[in-house]
Design brief:
binds manganese (II) ion; mainly alpha; 8 helices; about 50% helix; 3 strands
Length: about 200
């Protein structure tokens, strides 16, 4: 059974970049709904024993055909938001450090060039979805996915994600998604992103 991960900080901790009301509704209503829907879909199956949504996605072949799309949507929803809330934990470095810093500079030329590509991925995603920094094989890549599709389904490991569903920014930015994408950098905790990178590379 999957449980909603509690936020490790107060609802107002990401303000003014993301306001208290957005965080409260996004975590307590949207993220919670993915958890509840996923548990309903998995009840009675062997995957119900799993406690990690990424493990569910890695076992997607074991899900009955009529429930597969629902599980992709909701396990993706849980996994994506788990990373999102964790990478926004207040504090930490405001830019990449260590091995991840080197890898970003080698891949994209500079941190600024990476940020530009990531913002572009978020801005050009039509409708709802995510912008990602992923590890693909031994390479870093910027990609975007529609809906709640997780990069895990494509065999990629996401280490940073930005939610570009309107529920993530509409109260604070209305139609100005590019402004949200730009402000996002002020709240990313690069120590956490670096941990995700190091975990994979070990
Ligand atoms: Mn969301």
């Amino acid at each position: 059974m999957i449980k909603l991960k509690e936020l490790a900080y107060d609802y107002d901790a990401l303000a003014p970049v993301i306001g208290e009301e957005t965080v409260r509704i996004h975590h307590d209503k949207h993220h919670q709904a993915y958890v509840d829907n996923l548990n309903k879909l998995l009840e009675g199956s062997e995957l119900f024993e799993l406690e990690c949504p990424v493990e569910v996605l890695k076992n997607i072949d074991k899900v009955d055909e009529d429930k597969k799309q629902g599980v992709i949507n909701n396990a993706g929803g849980v996994a994506n938001h788990n990373l999102y809330w964790r990478e926004l934990t207040p504090g930490g470095s405001k830019e990449p450090v260590g091995a991840l810093k080197e890898a970003i500079e080698k891949t994209f030329g500079s941190f600024d060039a990476f940020k530009e590509e990531f913002q572009k991925a978020g801005a050009s995603r039509f409708g709802s979805g995510w912008a990602w920094l992923v590890i693909d094989g031994d390479e870093l890549k910027v990609i975007s996915t529609p809906n709640q599709d997780s990069p895990v389904l494509e065999g990629k490991k996401p280490i940073l994600g930005n939610d570009v569903w309107e529920h993530a920014y509409y109260l604070d930015y209305q139609n100005r998604r590019p402004d949200y994408l730009k402000a996002f950098w002020d709240i990313v905790n690069w120590d956490v992103v670096g941990e995700e990178y190091d975990k994979f590379c070990k």
